[in-house]
Amino acid sequence: MKPLSPLFTDLYELTMAAVYFEREMFAPATFSLFVRRYPQNWRFFVACGVEEVLSFLEDFRFSEEDLAYLESLGLFKPAFLDYLKDLRFSGEVFALPEGTIFFAGEPILEITAPIIEAQLVETLVINALNFGSLVASKAARCVLAARGKTLVDFSARRTQGIDAALKVARASWLAGFIATSNTLAGKLYGIPVTGTMAHSFIESFPQEIEAFRAFAEVFPQNTVLLLDTYDTLAAVEKAIEVARELEARGYRLKGVRLDSGDLVALAQEVRRRLDEAGLSYVKIFASGGLDEYRIEELLSAGAPIDAFGVGTKMGVSADAPYLDAAYKLVAYDGRPVTKLSTGKKTLAGRKQVFRFQGERFEKDFIGLREEEIPGAKPLLRCLMRQGKREEKAPTLEEIRHRVAQGLEMLPDALRLVRPEEVYYPVELTESLTRLQEQVEEEIRRREGLF
To answer: Is residue 150 part of a domain?
Structure first.
């Protein structure tokens, strides 16, 4: 894929960079990205988008066309545009490896680079990590709600754009979905793809059973019959007939799909009829407006559903369409800095996240980068130095395994779809607390805020 232009940035990043250039402000700056708070009912996040950020930083450069466009705006001096022509990202990135479980307030990523470089990449960094982590977290909640049942990504038609549909397919796969309906995502990422028929397919034939037979003839090893085009219970009798015809040819009907109606009652009756017909191997697949809340309701009500197609509500994260993610300056030219805005304070200095864990995650501390805490695991790793990756990019299977391990380590109270008012403990170390107090006091003294 073609590298993304550095023009994917808010204009004010460029105007600030121009001022830094004029003032010869080229000293190192550290920016920290974190999520301030949880959406309702959420108690954890899955880091996703880190690899996209690293790829963008490796390829960071302004093309001649980019510079010509900036010149056409009439805002920037020729010397600044000449500076941008040769600009490459030369900094370091400390980040959570993709697929790591993290919690509100914790740094996901910290970038240290000359301030112009670190400033210009802000928009992309927030966009990639906000959206990726949002969807991966939503998908992970669906995985937990499904209690081991199969999940497939059906979101491509209603995500907010083509790029989003591809990213959702990737993020949901990493979170534990087993396949996607998005064929391009399958090609790009090596994700398994799946799909059978729509209602229009049924409607195009003179009779429903003819549609069923036609599909079974062409795809005898992958036949899943959609039952609710006209009458679900009448359709299941036809599905039973087609299943017997398949058996006579040496094949088995793979499944039936329910997409509307009372899914609990219909799934129970369809299961009963299939079992009575000796077709206990036929799976019941459900779709239609599903997310973690609906999946939990269906399974708690005893719906014998084997697999779920999860689309719109997961793909757009309907209950929480954004994360309150922020990318804030925490150090410049060796000086820790912070923001004192009400409700939006930031933690000064270069940081590390330390995790205590036994059989499950127990407690996290946010501390200074150079700290060491006996018995705790530091989570942020140096993934890029001097603009080059420090580690080989992980495979999607490796990231998927990391997510699965992290979900297994979550305390039970945090795994619930509708948890009580309980939160994972995240505290500041004494060293970081002292630094924060010192920086705040210095700001108040310097700005006359006492």
So the answer is: yes
Bridge partner list, 153: 180, 310
Q: Which residues 6+ apart lie within 8 Å of 143 measured at CB?
A: 151, 175, 176, 177, 407
Q: Which of 321, 311, 46, 3 is nearest to 168 (CA)?
A: 311
**What is the tens place of the pLDDT at every residue in 91-143?**
999 999 999 999 999 999 999 999 999 999 999 999 999 999 999 999 999 99
Whole-number Å distance between alpha carbons of 385 and 90: 8
Q: Tell me, what CATH number does 186's domain have?
A: 3.20.20.70
Give the three-class secondary structure for 174: helix
Q: pLDDT > 90: what percent of the chain?
A: 96
Angle at 161 between CA 155 and CA 163, to 5 degrees: 90
Are 302 and 173 found together in one domain?
A: yes
Cα separation, 283 vs 88, whole angstroms: 53
Q: Total structural domains in the chain?
A: 2
- Six-digit token pair at 405? 């391990």
* Chain mean position to CA 255: 29
β-sheet bridge partners, residue 46: 101
| Residue numbers of the domain that contains 382 | 11-135+320-447
